[in-house]
Write a structure and sequence with these properties.
By secondary structure, the chain is α+β, with helices and mostly antiparallel strands. It is built from 6 helices and 5 strands; from the N terminus they run ααααβαβββαβ.
């Protein structure tokens, strides 16, 4: 046991006398930017993937409203939200409870629809009040908006990616269309 400890001490002394540590220093200098870049890229990729999933889910769900299937079959807001959530979770598992918000509104003209866009983010907070479900009648102009509260995964990047307080980002997907004359 003593000889093993002596060998370890000799190895430590040899390491302490070594002056060729340039590779270790270079590695230490490159390590932090490399990890920052890797984690930043992963965060941006996940946000982009979640946004793409939300866009796909809104387009698939809005088709029910645009073609009149939701109106003629008496589909409720809760059923549309459930369908939106199931479409959203096709590619990536995203918890919908308390994170997914839906706003379906009917307008008289496309100008009214663009002028009445309400920003749900006010004072660095998300306000879900005032959202409703009005799928409209045949040939009505309808705007479907879905909002998803995404938690930024990397605490270091929260100040960069968050758009509301609490390290969260609101992802938004919007479709504006005229209902078919069903």
């Amino acid at each position: 046991m003593f000889s093993r400890a002596l060998r370890r001490m000799k190895a430590l002394r040899r390491f302490a006398r070594a002056r060729r540590g340039s590779a270790a220093v270079e590695f230490a200098l490159v390590l932090m930017p490399f990890f920052l870049l890797t984690f930043g890229l992963a965060e941006v990729s996940m946000i982009g993937f979640a946004q793409t999933s939300l866009d796909f889910a809104v387009s698939e769900t809005a088709r029910q409203i645009r073609t009149g299937q939701a109106q003629t079959n008496g589909v409720t807001e809760s059923q549309i939200r459930t369908q939106l959530c199931s479409e959203l979770n096709n590619f990536i598992v995203m918890g919908c409870d308390g994170n997914l918000f839906l706003d379906v509104r009917r307008f008289n003209s496309f100008v009214d629809a663009s002028n009445n866009a309400q920003a749900p983010i006010q004072n660095n907070q998300f306000n879900s009040g005032g959202m409703g479900y009005q799928p409209g009648a045949p040939s009505d102009i309808v705007v479907v908006r879905a909002y998803y509260r995404w938690k930024v995964m990397t605490p270091l990047f929260e100040p960069i990616f968050q758009n509301i307080s609490g390290g969260e980002r609101i992802l938004v997907s919007t479709m504006m269309f005229r209902n078919e004359p069903y």
